[in-house]
Fold these 4 entries.
Entry 1:
Amino acid sequence: MTRQRLDGKVTLITGGTGGLGTAIVELFAREGARLVITDVAEGPQRDLSHRIEARGAEVVAARLDVSSARE
């Protein structure tokens, strides 16, 4: 089996359910990264994390609004 570029790496992706965010999540998952996906949209985030987990990636999804200092 070929080693993937991101094996053993943990990535934090904010805005993970937007168009670009989703593309990054999918690419990083293919490259072997363990993913932490954050977004304000919980429904799409949950759907994306389930899709990525079904492909064998490790995913943690969390609601986060990066525009909020409190969060």
Entry 2:
Amino acid sequence: MSITITNTAAKHVNQHLSTRGKGVGLRLGVKTTGCSGLAYVIEFADKIESDDKVFEHNGVKLIVNPKSYAYLKGTELDFGREGLNEGFKFNNPNVKDKCGCGESFNV
């Protein structure tokens, strides 16, 4: 099952990669935290590790370590604006519950 990125999010990532001047893509992951157990981690990736899973969609490489992939498979990464706020949104079909503040989730 792949991990995808919307066209809007891909444009945003490519713009920042170009401004940054380096990077091979976007690293997605999860970490243990929050009241529901897991939180998303997103950062620019400068290299791909030998055990990483790599998905290329809309011109962006999405890089995920094997541990995080179990929680992210089938996820679509989007980018949007709501009022004055903007940011990435994970449309993750594996999520069973989210905390009230929206910062963490569980599967």
Entry 3:
Amino acid sequence: MTHCVDREPVLNALFDGELDSLNAAEVETHVRTCVACSDYLAALAEVRDIIAAATLEEVAPLGLREKIETLVAAPDASATAAKLPSVGRHLPWLGGGAIGALAASLTLLVAAPRASVADLPDQLIAGHIRSLQAAHLTDVLTSDRHVVKPWFNGRIDFSPPVVDLVKQGYPLVGGRLDYIGDRPVAALVYRRRLHTINLFIRPAPPNASASPGTVHRHSYNIVHWVAGDLDYWAVSDIDPADLALFRQQFAKATAP
């Protein structure tokens, strides 16, 4: 029996302890009545236990230390070590080759990009699902853009454009404050017939691609675009063509 695919992001979040008490209680209630989702969580627990019980340690082969010290004894490694004199001063028990190896490791650590806690599309979909399941679709419930737009003043450090696209078939429902990527973002809510569209808006990150893009994941569609200094992500389960048309209509209505 297949688990509820549309609930997979929140099931994973529940298993990892990432849901607040209200959302956790709602998902746990569903799990108690859904055998497939209960089995899915049990399978996750089984995998976790197998990994925890596995012996993954490897014994370094003889001569590895000598080979590493030979490699890091090159001029580049020595130069890197020279930039870190405090290492030798505070750790006098380290040999010259070991200092080079430590310096090379520190260089890699500084240069390595930080791993993302969760993939952004999954975060967006989880935010979309949370808004539908926790009865927290809007903080300000109105189709009047002159009410929705000023509501965000003082709650976020940017001003999102707000338009009602009722004539285009996408009526404005309202807005709310949400959190994506550990920072507050504006979420505008629109309807397409019986479907909900969450439009997440945040300041555009450096080097963000200005070209529109689409993502399909977990039965949901995401359309992304950048306009000015803002980053837009529309999430819904509507047809991709309808979501692409929403982007076009919103961009047209908010164009300078």
Entry 4:
Amino acid sequence: MITISESAARHVSAFLAKRGKGIGVRLGVKTSGCSGMAYKLEFADSAEPEDHVFESRGLKVLVDPKSLPYLDGTELDFTREGLNEGFKFNNPNVKDACGCGESFNV
């Protein structure tokens, strides 16, 4: 199961409204970085047949079958820290992350 925090849901909903289309977000992982894997996040206009679809706070979260084992249990959050803001993945599967926060391993 993948969930979205209230803060992330507000941000995604506002962005989709501004865009004028979209059903939610697509999350995934890719091989990258010094720790092995990096997150992918994009706005989704439609679901693919193989996608796992989760509903959270009125939005759809789409995850491809290869990424789901690495993301299962993750909460997508949106945080502001000083002048910085962005999405944060609260992933219980992460065993180690690189110092820059761009990649992880499970």
